[in-house]
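Reopening closed ticket. The problem is back. First fold of the pair:
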Amino acid sequence: MKSFVFFSFLLCAISAQAQSDKYVAAMKKNLDLFDSAKTTQDFQTVANNFERIGDAEKTQWLPYYYAGLALTTSGWMDAKIDKDANSTRVNSLCDKAELIEKNADIYTIRNMAATQQMMVDPQTRWQTYGQQASGALEKAKQIDPNNPRIYYLQGQSVFNTPPAFGGGKDKAKPIFEKSIELFKKEQTKPLYPHWGQDQAEIMLSKCQ
């Protein structure tokens, strides 16, 4: 009986390891595709791939996160994208991710989705989507105040806000500096988000 139990446990362990290896391989393949993506269609294809990985795994939040990141990236680069429809899908992916794990990086994706919706018509949409965007970063800070991507995105918002409304490069500079300081301390695990430092350094150079 003990031998049977041990053998069953061994089979489960081997199966789990095989599934884990398959997951890691699929993630690495699609992260490479993400890095080489150039067009809206490329990013949407990558997003679809990541969502399928998430749906198959059921216990991993990272595939949904990267699917959302791919869609927000295409939202920034393509003016023709329907920002409301795109952001609705992004938030749906965030919902799936948060059923598995609630963390600061997911809220950074929500921030970008809301910001893109606000930028369709800032004057009329600020009260709704502007507050959603800033609220997402505040929730992210409550979960992990040392996440550098929070401050990169906050710095972006302040940088693009007119000085008359409390923004501008002088106000954004210390926020980007904090972001870069945290990036240098960040210890990322394999497959986990690590983007943002290069962008923060570029933005800091614009504040000089």
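Second fold of the pair, where the issue appears:
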Amino acid sequence: MTFLARRSRPVRRHAVRIPVWLLVLCLGAPLATQAATVWTGPRVVFTKADGTDSKQAANQDRLTSNVWLTRGGSQGLYNAARENSFSHNLSPADTEWATGTTANYASLTYTNWETWAKSVGSPPGPPATVGVNAVLHLKTDDIYLDIKFLSWSVRPASGTGFSYERSTPGTGMSNVDCLFNWAESTYPELLAPPAASATTAYNSADYYYRHYTQTNAYVGTSSVDNHVYYLGPISANELLDLGPLSTWLATSGCQ
């Protein structure tokens, strides 16, 4: 029986509702905790050409008001919003890096850019990071994004350059899809496989939901009451009202 069929019937909430504290215990995270933001929008390419001035805005990738990535006449990346030049094992300030993708951002091990760059490739170092999938965490903003270096200049006579492609906030995504994506990343043991690979979203006049075939679970929203619902093993395959959509959007950072 599908999620929609279950939801279409009158719901006896007093008979099927699991206490919220019990669900929270099963999920392993409090509802009130503010979640990180994951940028899943279309990728863009940023390039700082050899010989260009790192102090100019055009040569800085200004991701947020806290992080402006660039590179000076030599050495590595630095954050022009917080620093005047590169510092070993510190720059770019207010960032941390890991090899991988945002699909698994919560389980990755992060470190400063220089340490990460020296852990990649053979011989290790910034040039070896070209072509490597990585995740950049903007610490103050608590934003995670996919990033992949496309080029890295080594001691050019005119000054150093680099280029990379990275994900964007994805303003075209609905806040509900953003919520579903966040839930899949946060609770992979409950909601698998992720929608990007194998899950179909279903839409009707009143309900929008996703079915996760591996874990045989459903998560959906209702336009009737603007609540989020779950159906699957955690709720003994009974429909569970998880509360207002607005609360979950705030928790997931998808407002």
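Update: turned out to be a display glitch only; the data is intact. Confidence is low (pLDDT under 50) at residues 10-34. Residues 37 and 143 are 5 Å apart (CA to CA). Please close again.
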